[in-house]
Each structure stands twice: as C-alpha cells, then as structure tokens.
Amino acid sequence: MFGKLTRRHALMAAALLPAPALAQAWPSQPIRLIVPFAPGGTTDLIARLVSTPLQERLGQPIIIENRPGAGATVGSLMAAQASPDGHTLVLSNIASHGISPTLYANIRYDALRDFTHIALLTLNPSVFVANPRAGISNMEDFARLHRSTPRGLDMASSGAGSSNHLLIVRMGQLLGREINHIPFRGAGPAMTAVIGGQVPLMSDSLPSAAAHIRQGSVRAVAMSSAERHPSFPDVPTLREQGYDLVTSSWFGLSGPARLPQPVVERLSREVRAILATAEIRARFAEIGGTPGEFSPEEYAAFVASEVNSWAALVRESGAQPD
Predict the structure, then answer these.
(1) At how many degrees (to 10) do helices 261-275 and 42-58 cross?
(2) pLDDT tens for residues 196-245?
(3) What is the Cα–Cα distance from 102 to 215, expressed in whole angstroms?
(4) Is residue 142 one of the residues assigned to a domain?
(5) Does residue 12 fall inside a structural domain?
(6) What is the DSSP letter of 30?
C-alpha cells in the first residue's frame, strides 16, 4: 500500500539526485524570502529590488515575508529552522548576523553554523536625519540642543540591535551624554514618527532615507561614510563635522545550513548577474548602495569577520537591547 508522500520523503529523494538533476529540479515551488524587519526600511527595499529580477530568472514567484522583532533575530531564527531545500531564504544583514549575536545573550541561532551564506547584496552608509522643524541642520546644532535639553534628545532607529542603534550609542559617548534611543519595529515606522514630529531625529540606512531626503520631508544632518556620498554631495560626513565615526550597513542573501551546493551555486550565479546589470547598479546608486561582489565562500568569511568586529564594539559601548 502506498503512503502519502511527505516533505521528508521529497527531501530524501532530492538528495539522491545527481547535482545537475537537482539544479534543474530546483526551484519546484514558490520561494519564501524572509525579511527580518518591517516593510519600508532598507532591508525590505533591498529584498524587493533584488527579488523581482531573481524570480524572473528562477521561474518561480518569490514571496516576501516580513518578520520583524528582537534585532532581526525573530525572522532569522525562522530561516535557520526552515527545511534546507532552497525554498526558504532570508535577507541576512548587519543586525541579524553581525550585531545581535553579541547583543542578545540568549540568541537561539549561530550566525555562521546555522546558515548557508550565499551572496552579499549591498553595502551602504548610515545617515542622521531630522524633522525640518526640529532646528537641527548640522552636528553643531545637534550637540547644542542635546546638551541644552533637560533630558537630552530622542533619536529613533529601526530597532534594538541594528547598526543604527549602535551608532546612536557611540554618538552619545562622543557627545559626553547618552542619547535617548527610541527603537521601532523597522525603519518605515521610525521614519513616519520623525516626519510626523513625534521624534526629532533618526539614524537610518541611506537607501531607506534617500527618497525622504530628496523630497524634503526630513533634513540630512550627517553621513557615516568616510567621504561625502556621490549621490548626496551636499551632506557632510560625521568626520567632517568633528566626529571620527565611520560605519556601513550590509545586506545579503542566506538560507538554512546545509543548502544543497547546486542550489547555492545557482543562486550565487543569478544574484551576481543581477547585481551586474546597469538597471540595478543605477538603482543602487540612486539610493546610496554599493552592489556586492562576493562568492558564497567570501560572503561567509565576511559575516564571520563582522561577528568578531562588532562583538568588541558592542561590549565596549555597553549597549543593551531595548
């Protein structure tokens, strides 16, 4: 008597296929792409920019699933626990795979062991933006108001554990007074609060802030890049304004551990082809991102180096999850 074909049976059958056959068989269903932040932020934006051409090349829909929370660890844990059949991927990033492994004492995944890292998608700086009515045009204004306000200034970010959270902590140290970090469940809600005047300032990744800066709904105060960004030449860096603080965010594509090698190679090949197109490069330049060019092995090594470098900074800063 024949029983029902289970997901486990399907995976066992796939494991018996030779590599060329497996590569041709995958993907056999829609791909779930977990974005561990809310809609409207840089992670979500990058996911949507890349997923559209990727699904065309793979011949299957890519369904974006936003799962924010706890420094991007909620969605990332879901990806780590998913079946390694290539039909669940995650937008790995500096928060989920660089900072949170040290920031959260009880994190339930290993940023290296529990994932297959496939491709670096983009690197980009952060930018401090202010509500135009807040009276903050530069870092001199920022410092003056922060010192003169009885409880200090409030500053939003996309959430605890993000690189922008750590940037706020470090900025407070340089100013000699803690900045009140206001975490949101994603950059989109945080930006809405700044535009609406509920919070005067925000530290944001440039891609998600770019359109708002151009529209004038927020004022760019400082960039975290080493030099002025070519897409925003009028925005001075933190370093120019007397604060030696340089940092970049990063976003990549990963899956659960033990993804079949033919699937990894196919994804890597397709993503690198997409990032090389004039259309994507122009779009990334517009929003302030630099396309990545790493192989899977190079991206895995990069994530390992980020875990190590951010561990020291997290401990030194004394940052805590909000």
Answers:
(1) 110
(2) 999 999 999 998 899 999 999 999 999 999 999 988 999 999 999 999 99
(3) 37
(4) yes
(5) no
(6) P
DSSP code string of 210-260: HHHHHHTSSEEEEE-SSS--TT-TTS-BTTTTT-----EEEEEEEEETT--
Query: Domain total for the chain?
Result: 2
42 class by beta-carbon count within 10 Å (0-12 exposed, 13-18 middle, 19+ buried): buried
Task: Give ∠ CA 182-148-186 in degrees, rounded to 5.
Answer: 15
CB within 8 Å of 38: residues ≥ 6 apart:
44, 66, 68, 158, 184, 185, 186, 187, 188, 189
* Sign of the dihedral through C-alpha 34, 37, 43, 45: positive
Domain boundary, last residue among 184, 208, 223? 223
Q: Tell me what the mean pLDDT of segment 41-54 comes to.
A: 94
Proportion of the chain above pLDDT 90, given as a percent: 72
User: What is the extent of the structural domain holding 160?
Assistant: 125-223
Query: What is the token pair recorded at 296?
Result: 């899977």
Peptide bond into 20 cis (omega under 30): no
Contact partners, residue 262, CB within 8 Å, separation at least 6: 19, 20, 22, 23, 26
| 87 and 49, same domain (yes or no) | yes
pTM: 0.79
- Measured in whole angstroms, the distance separating CA 308 from the mean position of its chain's CA atoms is 18
DSSP state letter for 81: T
CA–CA dist 68, 42 (Å, integer): 13
